[in-house]
Amino acid sequence: MGSVFADFHEAQRVGYGPLLASCLAPVDTPRDPHRLDSFAQISNYHTVSADVRYQIIQARTAAKLPKAEANAWVDIFVALWKCVRELVALRQGTGTGDWSKAFDAYKELCNHLVRGYTNFGFQAWTVPCLSVAGKYLRMIGMRADSETKAKEGNGDVFASGFSDDIMGDTNKNEKLEQAAWTINRMFTICLSDRAEESESRRWGIYSTTNLLFKTYFKLNSVSLTKNVIRALEAAADDIPNLARFPKSHQCTFKYYRGVIEFLQENYVDAEQNLMEALQLCHKDSMKNQEQILTYLVPAHIVNHHQLPTNALLAPYPTLVKIFTPLFAAIRAGSLAAFDNALSEAESELVRRRVYLTLERTRGLCLRNLFRKVCLAAGWEETKDATTGEVTGKIRRTRIRIEEFEAGMRVSYKGATDVLVDRDEVECFLANMIYKNMMKGYIARDRGIVVLSKAGAFPGTGV
User: Fold this and answer.
1) How far apart are the C-alpha atoms of 387 and 60, rounded to whole Å?
2) How far apart are alpha carbons 122 and 76 in whole angstroms?
3) CA nearest to 278, candidates 233, 312, 310, 304
4) If we measure between CA atoms, which residue out of 327, 359, 330 comes closest to residue 343?
5) At 442, is the secondary structure helix, strand, or coil?
6) Residue 162 three-state SS
7) What is the pTM of this model?
8) Where are the chain's structural domains?
9) Most-buried pick from 20, 188, 349, 434 (CB within 10 A)?
10) Where would I find the H helices in 162-244?
11) From CA 159, how far away is CA 143, in angstroms rounded?
């Protein structure tokens, strides 16, 4: 406990927010590996308020604080002690610890912290406390919900990170919902500040925004992110430019904005945000890069009809496993292989929320199949209009619909549940032309497709 309060008073003297925020983290540290145990043992439920008050206000080394502010910090550290007491009991396996009680205590800490800003004049330099408190409230809430499910016979695994935020289980999340409400209050505390920029709590806006996004995704309440985005856009003139915030805040914000746009099928905006997130991501953060590429790759394919190179995916084994068979089928123009690859990876793609987007790449597979039909159709001679002499040859530009139909039948070779008829083939051809993936027109009366002599399949060299 001594090290916690020593850091607290040092942070108050020098006005260093990250050090102050570290005092609220209910974890051991490399510098003090027994911090939680010593913090829990320094007092008991009967005297904890008096003991904390002594450490904050009356100790010889205590920093001098206004009375109301000091009392607010006493309440905060009393709540922290209650939380740590439960966490230590859980770690010791005595059977007396409870994750729900730990969450309730830490939520009490967060509520006192919010009141410190609204009622007791906590200064702007202390804003890192909000993001640290919100982070651990969210983590303890997830663990509490997980334990509740386990007791009810519906076990879950506690984890954290980009992937778990996007791909979370959405059964009973009572504590996490409470955490979301509390973090939303922290977001409002930062957003509503009207102080001068140098003294503004708005420097904490993106850390709390990112926590809200993470929590809403975990709750499968992505629609709630719209309210956060609207609030940010409305206050854009008063918020410092995003580029002035730490890169970690920028990267995380761009990632979630990209995923939100991706889920709303705004693939152009999604690609732009995700590309910026990838550029901001630390070069050694392979897991985070993988998560960004999980959505950036499908968005790029939909926008540009271009597949990524094998070299791009090679450093990410998970992406290689789920994407490579699908992309190989697209390159080969094999509809049967495409359907098989999509079916085999379905559960993982659904979990990552990219299944429907990748299903749309079937059109690219079909484009490549029709391109192969065009190449197989061969060449035809060109003749001089005056003399009738052969002057060269060009690829056939008039191809019978039956040839495309035959190509589809070959592509589906081995599939027993697929029937291909002429009307369906015409429909596919019309869609290709409409989407500008083929250039030409269908002459139905003659049963042929007339392709452009130059760039019949844009971007493919044919």
Assistant:
1) 110
2) 12
3) 312
4) 359
5) strand
6) helix
7) 0.86
8) 2-240, 253-360, 380-451
9) 20
10) 162-166, 174-191, 205-218, 225-234
11) 8
Closest CA to 297 of 361, 217, 351: 361
- Of residues 414, 423, 417, 411, the one with CA closest to residue 362: 411
Half-sphere exposure of 53 (CA within 13 A, CB side): 7
- The region of weakest confidence among 62-76, 266-280, 311-325, 385-399 is 385-399
| Segment (H or E) for 391 | strand 390-395
Give the pLDDT mean for 148-168: 60
Kindly tell me the sign of the dihedral angle through the C-alpha atoms of 139, 87, 129, 113: positive
What are 323-326's contacts with CB under 8 Å, separation 24+? 323/297, 326/358, 326/361
Rounded Cα–Cα distance for residues 74 and 63 (Å): 13
Measure the CA–CA gap between 168 and 156, rounded to whole angstroms. Answer: 10
Tokens of 167: 């791909």
pLDDT, one tens digit per residue, over 36-45 is 999 999 889 9
Beta carbons within 8 Å of 104's beta carbon, 6+ residues apart? none
Count other C-beta atoms under 10 Å from residue 192's C-beta.
13
Contacts of 285 (CB under 8 A, 6+ apart): none
Q: What is the pLDDT of residues 181-239, one digit of tens each?
A: 999 999 999 999 888 888 899 999 999 999 999 999 999 999 999 999 999 999 999 99
286, 160 Cβ separation under 8 angstroms: no
pLDDT score at 165: 62
Q: In 3-state terms, what secondary structure has residue 413?
A: coil
Instruction: Tell whether domain 380-451 is in CATH 3.40.50.1820.
Output: no
What length is written for the chain?
Answer: 462
3-state class of 428 per DSSP? helix
